[in-house]
Amino acid sequence: MPSYLTDFKALSFDCYGTLIDWETGIWTQLQLLVSRLPENHPFRDRDTLIRRYNVFQREFQREDPKTLYNDGVAGCFVKLAEEANIPFTQAEAEAFGRSAGSWPAFPDTVEALKVLKRYYKLVIISNVDNDNVQRTLEGPFAGVDIDVVLTAEDMGAYKPDHNNFRILFDTVKQKFGVEKKQLLHVAKSLPIDHVPAKELGLTSVWIARGPGGSTAMGGNVKEYDGKVAFSWRFPTLGDMAAEVEKAFAEK
């Protein structure tokens, strides 16, 4: 197995949570509900609300893999509102479902991707639908050259489904002649990306955003001891890009 960053030919990325600030996007869009909560409601705490939201999101992705992300996310909005016993409209839920395409990139993402593009093919493998991903490409990622985008909508399932990664392997082989051992997976989420990466023998990089790498969507590394085996850990994608530049300069 390759042991240097210079040994790889392509990078595959989780998008929302690794490149796009998923938690800030969710929290911002849920302010519509938060503003209607009693002052002492636990959902006024960002981490509590996002963790509860994430339970609903993983539930629909696991139980209804054919459901489009925007529809599933709208359903999560409804479940949160009903659980908190606060009013909402269907139009509000649908607008929330389409909000992912407007969520912001992390400050380091765009420049880091431009650096990494000098050395690798870039592939996004996302659990989000085509409409939201396209708006991300045209908005926050404008000017970034992504070679291939694979979405849950096109693949018919959500990560951590192994078939999504098999489609990834087949795609980079067919389009670029890149073998699995030459592909490096870059992601934040431990359960969604790094667990299946270990199970499938895919080398990975953990982008450990957040205090100690622990966030509501990404999981706590202590909880996944023995279940993940990332080869590198960086606090941001920008830090990874800097290390890649250094590695190729010294090659």
Automatic annotation (TrEMBL):
<dbReference type="InterPro" id="IPR036412">
    <property type="entry name" value="HAD-like_sf"/>
</dbReference>
<dbReference type="InterPro" id="IPR051540">
    <property type="entry name" value="S-2-haloacid_dehalogenase"/>
</dbReference>
<dbReference type="Pfam" id="PF00702">
    <property type="entry name" value="Hydrolase"/>
</dbReference>
<dbReference type="InterPro" id="IPR023214">
    <property type="entry name" value="HAD_sf"/>
</dbReference>
<keyword id="KW-0378">Hydrolase</keyword>
<protein>
    <recommendedName>
        <fullName>Haloacid dehalogenase</fullName>
    </recommendedName>
</protein>
<dbReference type="GO" id="GO:0016791">
    <property type="term" value="F:phosphatase activity"/>
</dbReference>
<dbReference type="InterPro" id="IPR006439">
    <property type="entry name" value="HAD-SF_hydro_IA"/>
</dbReference>
